[in-house]
Design a protein that fits this description.
Blueprint lengths: L2 E10 L2 E11 L4 E5 L6 H9 L6 E6 L8 H6 E4 L11 H11 L5 H11 L12 H14 L4 E5 L7 H18 L2 E5 L3 H7 L2 E6 L2 E7 H7 E7 L9 E7 L3 E7 L10 E3 L3 H9 L24 E2 L3
Parallel strand pairs: 3-7, 3-8, 5-6, 6-7
Antiparallel strand pairs: 1-2, 1-4, 8-9, 10-12, 10-13, 11-12, 11-14
Bound molecules: adenosine-5'-triphosphate.
Protein name: ABC transporter ATP-binding protein
Keywords: ATP-binding, Nucleotide-binding, Transport
GO molecular function, one term: ATP binding
């Protein structure tokens, strides 16, 4: 197992960033970590990297306690959200530092990437653009050849072409070296291309965790004439109603037999958005007319979990 968390909780003073998270991420997978701003994604990655310690609960990464010693540090690579580089050091200095600090350092990969990216080895990292700094930090993470690479919003500052190329590099490392990756991102379309597992965090809790194909196979969008009652025996994730129509996202392994429902497949983005949606006020009495659209009032949306 590459990450194993049990009742993992992290508080900062009175603020709870993560609460009771229980997770198993098998080795060698690419796991997308998604959730609204402030959901606890960076906190989870920092705990996995050993940059933070849990308030309660446990987390094990590649069979050890995060940050517990040199062996553990070799196994795990971590690129934080702000693409940490040493401003006063040049690009070449970074590669030299990487080679000195990491026993498994892949110098050929690092140099080839720097050249392909057009980074000047003599340039100080502090003078690189935001995207170039991110590329340098990601190069360091890949060249370290860890068992598990933790990436906090790695592609946020990259242009679309650079994003695609980086994700390809990542996939190559996954296929060729069995690298496991956990990456947080708000760009679900990117995650859809590279991830075979997904974790949705919201409000510091794990809302969804599993294999993407398996999750997509058991979630369906049902639409049909408006119904106020929810189908029995099914886990309704979201229910949205207009005056005439109801649209539900349900989780079920059983076939949907009721002919009144049109059954549609979901994309990963649909699924993620469904589990990210904040619990709304319970559907009240039906509201007709223009007041239904007024400020502060939104279409009835129920989340039943
Ligand atoms: N060092 C800290 N001190 C105090 N509160 C913190 C600290 N780090 C995070 N938090 C709080 O913990 C919660 C989770 O933050 P976190 O950065 O993990 O969220 P996130 O999902 O990564 O968000 P984003 O998508 O905006 O990057 C937030 O409420 C945040 O304010």
């Amino acid at each position: 197992m590459s990450v194993r968390a049990r009742a993992l909780t992290k508080r900062f003073g009175r603020r709870t960033a993560l609460t009771g998270c229980t997770l198993d991420i098998p080795a060698g997978h690419v796991t997308g970590l998604v959730g609204p701003n402030g959901a606890g994604k960076s906190t989870l990655l920092s705990l996995a990297a050993g940059m933070l310690t849990p308030t309660s609960g446990t987390i094990e990464v590649c069979g050890g306690r995060p940050g517990s010693g040199p062996e553990q540090l070799t196994k795990v690579g971590y690129v934080a959200q702000d693409a940490p580089v040493y401003a006063a050091l040049t690009v070449a200095d970074h590669l030299e530092l990487g080679a000195r600090l990491n026993t498994g350092w892949d110098d050929a990969l690092a140099r080839a990437r720097v050249e392909r990216l057009g980074l000047d080895p003599r340039q100080r990292a502090g003078k690189l653009s935001g995207g170039q700094r991110a590329q340098l930090a990601l190069t360091m993470g890949l060249a370290k050849r860890p068992e598990l690479l933790l990436l906090d919003e790695p592609v946020a500052t990259l242009d679309p072409l650079a994003r695609r190329e980086f994700l390809q590099d990542l996939m190559e490392a996954v296929v060729e070296h069995g690298l496991g990756v956990v990456l947080s991102s708000h760009l679900v379309a990117d995650l859809e291309r590279v991830c075979d597992r997904v974790i949705v965090l919201a409000g510091g809790e794990v809302r969804l965790d599993g294999d993407v194909d398996e999750l997509l196979a058991v979630h369906h969008r049902l639409s049909g004439p408006r119904r106020d009652g929810l189908p029995a025996g099914q886990h309704v994730v979201t229910a949205a109603h207009t005056e005439r129509q109801s649209t539900l996202i349900v989780r079920t392994e059983a076939p949907i037999l009721d002919p009144a429902w049109a059954v549609g497949a979901l994309t990963l983005e649909d699924l993620v958005l469904a589990y990210m949606s904040p619990p709304a006020e319970p559907a009240g009495p039906r509201v007709h007319g223009p007041e239904a659209e007024g400020p502060g009032r939104r279409p009835a949306l129920e989340i039943v979990r």
